[in-house]
# Entry
Amino acid sequence: MKEKVKKVLEKSPARRRAVDMLGVDFSTTATKVVRLKKTKDEIHLVGVDLLPAVDFSVAAQRVELPRNLAAHYASLAYSGPDSIIRMVNAPLSKDEIILHEGKLRELLNVKDDYRVSSRLIKKGQGRQDSNFLAAAIPSDDVEFLLNLFPAGPPAPASVEVAGLSFISAFLNARSDEAENGAVCLIEAGESGSNFAFLNKGKVVLVGKFDSGGAKMRDRVAEDLGLDAELAATIIADRSINISTVVLDVMTPFLKQLSISKDFIERHQSCQVSKIYVSGGVSLLSHWTEMVEQYLHTAVVQWDPFENIQCDPELFPSEIAQQAPRFAAAVGAALGGLEEL
# Structure
């Protein structure tokens, strides 16, 4: 059974069941938008686009969407630096399945200026604590995102952390591969990277790290005395051997992943068989090679549009080539279809 990832929700007061949902991922480099429709047991892509990034440092202005992306509802995801994702443990009484908000805030070490949410992953037996997947988003960020859609369709149906929504996309695309063993997922973007370990289809560990494409580019530019644009070109086409510089930037993240992998394998009595990568940085071949070499585990790039019916006319080749960048947007839309 697929593990549904709980979102931090800001619900509209009244909605009919949604079969048409927009997923919007507000990332550092772009606003990635995916429109999905559900018909019986199939999900169809009916619109996809890359729009300019939204500046969170200025007042929110209405997001203008092309006509083909005019769904009634939208599930929003973002990669805010102050967002939190974490596995937490807490005792529950026999009949409880929900972690009370006050206790959740205590475990996440946040106050009333955050919206918080959690989902029960494993109910503790006897005196064992129960295990929860938890998330928190600054209230100001939630309000900012909602103000991007002040009136009319699409109405915001939910707000979530992109570091969780990409898990939903993976489970839709590769659920069979996750249900029978342990795997690691990495979503590597411009400003940071998120990871999740799954065992038998359930999330057992999540985390985030502030190492992404921007840090690699800045370090290459600094070490070689280049501007950012030329540094990005060199990173992309491998015209100069920069493996030492890139590894230096990646090492803290790779160490954290290695420790997490060892912990999961020891405490879950399993072996992480594969690492699945998505996000813009995963398009860089030398980045995936370093992950594979450092963690001694096969790395697989996956397509978030797998198991989604795609009309080639609605899926331009220039976007199809960047499919891994849309994992969070696809996951947000899928989650919205399940929630409503």
Q: What stands out?
A: The chain has nine helices and 14 strands. The longest strand covers residues 42-51. The radius of gyration is 20 Å. Residues 243-267 form the longest helix (25 residues).
